[in-house]
Amino acid sequence: MKKILIVGATSAIAGACARLWAADEGEFFLVARDAQKLQQTSADLLVRGAGEVTTHVMDATDIAAHSVMLEYCLDTLQSIDICLIAHGTLPDQSACEQNADLTLTEFANNGTSVIALLTLLANQMAVQRSGTLAVISSVAGDRGRPSNYVYGCAKAAVSTFCEGLRARLFKSGVQVMTIKPGFVDTPMTQGLALPALLVTQPEAVARRVVAGIEHKVSVLYVPGFWAWIMWVIRGLPQPLFKRLNL
Question: Which residues contact 222 (CB under 8 A, 6 or more apart)?
């Protein structure tokens, strides 16, 4: 029975992952801001076969609350086999361009809060000398595009942090997996004009994430074709890239 901590547990991708782990009787510690949604998620997982589910309300941007959450988690689970960090927001790029405070708030939502959690959790897993840290970043972090560079720079920070953390924790037997989804059909992307052929469902992402953890994948593009798309975008010369509306 796997012991699983999920931060941002009410997000679409996290929920889809949890349902797969519940079928294997996983034991969960779920963290999110919305108490009502947490309870709904908990009830659903128990019906699906979860061994035990504990919920904890926390705003991930409240850095001081992280250590309290982890202490409660360890009191409950004793150890952590898998930690999935899945919280985040999709900012309004245009609004951020006009408001530095909003930009920094969004960077905290998607960047610094994740890095703070990873720092705390990495130390715990280094002591355990086992476990997996799986972190949802984004293909947006691979290059700063004018349409979403506030979001992208936060995800780039997370991806680079994970790369260094992966090398550090490898020596302790701890896996770090950076998850880079492309366009996913979730409440966060609802209403956006996305190319239908490139949009995937949370359940498809979850299957890849669960399999990636089992196979100890370091960087997971979801779907896989995004690795090729971003390879092309990263390779565009700057004089051409800055003229494109990406």
Answer: 179, 180, 181, 182, 184, 200, 204, 205, 208, 209
CATH code of the domain in which 218 resides: 3.40.50.720
Sheet holding 132-136, edge to edge: 52-57, 27-32, 3-7, 82-85, 132-136, 175-181, 219-222
pTM check: above 0.90: yes
Question: What letter would DSSP give residue 26?
Answer: -
Q: How confident is the model at residue 156 (pLDDT cuts 50, 70, 90)?
A: very high
Other C-beta atoms within 10 Å of 34: how many?
A: 12
**pLDDT at 191 > cutoff 90:** no
**Residue 83 belongs to domain spanning:** 3-243
Count CB-CB contacts under 10 A for residue 131. 24
Total domain count, the chain: 1
Q: For position 246, what pLDDT does the model report? A: 84
Please list, residue by residue across 196-228, b when 16 or more beta carbons sit within 10 angstroms of its beta carbon and e when fewer do: eeeebebebbbebbbebbeeebebbbbbeebbe
CA–CA dist 34, 37 (Å, integer): 5
